[in-house]
């Protein structure tokens, strides 16, 4: 059980940020109606009492968060969606007094050590450690959408978790990683000085995106804006759903790369995604859930485009700058003896084609996603490039990073590994009986079928 100790609202320091708004770009607009919101947690060792938490940690975190929001002000604001999509563009808006919802809580019946393990764990408790976004507000002229919330939960005398929930239209993983890093540095150093040399301060100038026109953005908004924004209701998930973390070492990754040497892009991301795709297909087949041989399996992931634009955007550009990739393969091929190699080639080719035409998406890609609705798709969240295990609030580095929202969305998470130089962590949620089968397939493949 999680007991709420305090509901807070935290704003940037008064007068530190003038009223500001950011007009959504072609990279933001496709995410307006994307659910579920993204939720993730950092777990830290924290062997302190409830009184220490409330008297020392809570005030420190609220103060440092306020300073971080001075630089990342859109997190305090709201998404403003005009009721008439022909009247104006949607914006991320901040006005004096806007704030982030922050919950401070205490967990009294979940074992901290169990939650930070890699083994199969009940998925349910993780949802109590991340906040829900506040409800939307509707006026005659617009819909006002809260887009960010935080929950800090104490496990008395053992640990603390910091949970985040954000609407994807706010920003992508690159931006939220920079925010988390900045907040951690401010908390640890008890001031802002360290963040100026950290390379994580956001860049806001959207006029530097020169490859899109105002007409393209307006056209996309008129398509997206016709869909009424709904209040999000979290779907139910099976009571026996479990979460597991699979560690794949640098040596294993190199062996996979050797097998996929004919692919266009033989990166760690490509070969790990291809291997997971084939293992999942085999897992489904083991329970007579294999698709018809002529049916297709889908994958979805995104690539960071900041460095691919002309001119390139700084890596700290605030917002979304992603291109969606949607490779598709016949089920019979994925399950066949060359399934891994074919999947590796396909994923690499899809990335190459997307990066050669970064801005050739938007409405067509929305249609592609809709056409795949209800079909089997493996989503991939995260990237080996973001090391969430380096985010330090002064309590040491995290013991575990978990993407909670993958419980709902048929998604695996992928990130650098905390304990392995060059290795990766893969997070997956499945019903318990399927997780047992998947685990056997995953490790058997690495042990016996990869030279």
UniProtKB/TrEMBL annotation:
The UniProt keywords, alphabetically, are: Acyltransferase, Transferase
User: Pfam families this protein is in?
Assistant: Transferase
InterPro entries in alphabetical order: CAT-like_dom_sf, Plant_metabolite_acyltrans
Q: Which GO terms describe its molecular function?
A: acyltransferase activity, transferring groups other than amino-acyl groups
Q: Does the keyword Transferase apply?
A: yes
The name this protein carries in UniProt is Uncharacterized protein
Q: Which organism is it from?
A: Escallonia rubra
């Amino acid at each position: 059980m999680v007991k709420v100790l305090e509901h807070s609202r935290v704003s940037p320091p008064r007068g530190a940020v003038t009223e500001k708004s950011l007009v959504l770009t072609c990279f933001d607009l496709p995410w307006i109606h994307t659910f579920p919101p993204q939720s993730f947690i950092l777990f830290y060792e924290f062997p302190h009492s409830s009184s220490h938490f409330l008297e020392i940690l809570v005030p420190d975190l609220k103060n440092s968060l306020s300073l971080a929001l001075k630089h990342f002000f859109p997190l305090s604001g709201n998404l403003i969606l005009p009721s008439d999509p022909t009247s104006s563009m949607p914006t991320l808006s901040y006005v004096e007094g806007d704030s982030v919802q922050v919950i401070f809580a205490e967990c009294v019946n979940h074992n901290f050590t169990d939650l930070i393990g890699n083994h199969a764990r009940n998925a349910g408790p993780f949802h109590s450690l991340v906040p829900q976004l506040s409800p939307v507000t509707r006026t005659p002229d617009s819909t006002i959408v809260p887009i960010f919330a935080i929950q800090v939960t104490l496990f008395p005398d053992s640990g603390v978790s910091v949970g985040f929930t954000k609407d994807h239209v706010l920003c992508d993983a690159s931006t939220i990683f920079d925010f988390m890093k900045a907040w951690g540095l401010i908390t640890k150093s008890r001031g802002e000085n360290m963040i100026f040399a950290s390379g994580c301060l956001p860049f806001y100038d959207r006029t530097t995106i020169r490859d899109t026109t105002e007409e393209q953005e307006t056209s996309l908004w008129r398509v997206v804006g016709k869909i009424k924004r709904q209040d999000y209701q979290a779907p139910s998930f099976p009571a026996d759903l479990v979460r597991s973390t699979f560690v794949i070492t640098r040596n294993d990754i190199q062996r996979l790369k050797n097998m996929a040497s004919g692919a266009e892009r033989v990166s760690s991301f490509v070969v790990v995604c291809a291997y997971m795709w084939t293992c999942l297909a085999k897992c489904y087949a083991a329970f007579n859930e294999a698709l018809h041989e002529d049916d297709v399996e889908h994958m979805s992931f995104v690539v960071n485009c900041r460095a691919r634009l002309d001119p390139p955007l700084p890596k700290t550009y605030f917002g979304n700058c992603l291109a969606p990739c949607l490779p598709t393969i016949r089920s019979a091929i994925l399950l066949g003896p060359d399934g891994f190699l074919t999947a590796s080639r396909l994923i690499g080719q899809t990335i190459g084609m997307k990066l050669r035409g970064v801005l050739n998406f938007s409405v067509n890609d929305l249609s592609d996603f809709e056409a795949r609705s209800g079909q089997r798709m493996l989503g991939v969240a995260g990237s080996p490039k973001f090391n969430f295990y380096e985010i330090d609030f002064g309590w040491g580095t995290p013991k575990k990073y978990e993407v909670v929202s993958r419980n709902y969305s048929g998604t695996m998470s992928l990130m650098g590994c905390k304990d392995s130089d060059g290795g990766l962590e893969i997070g997956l949620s499945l019903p318990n009986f399927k997780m047992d089968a998947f685990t056997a397939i995953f490790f058997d493949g690495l042990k016996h079928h990869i030279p």
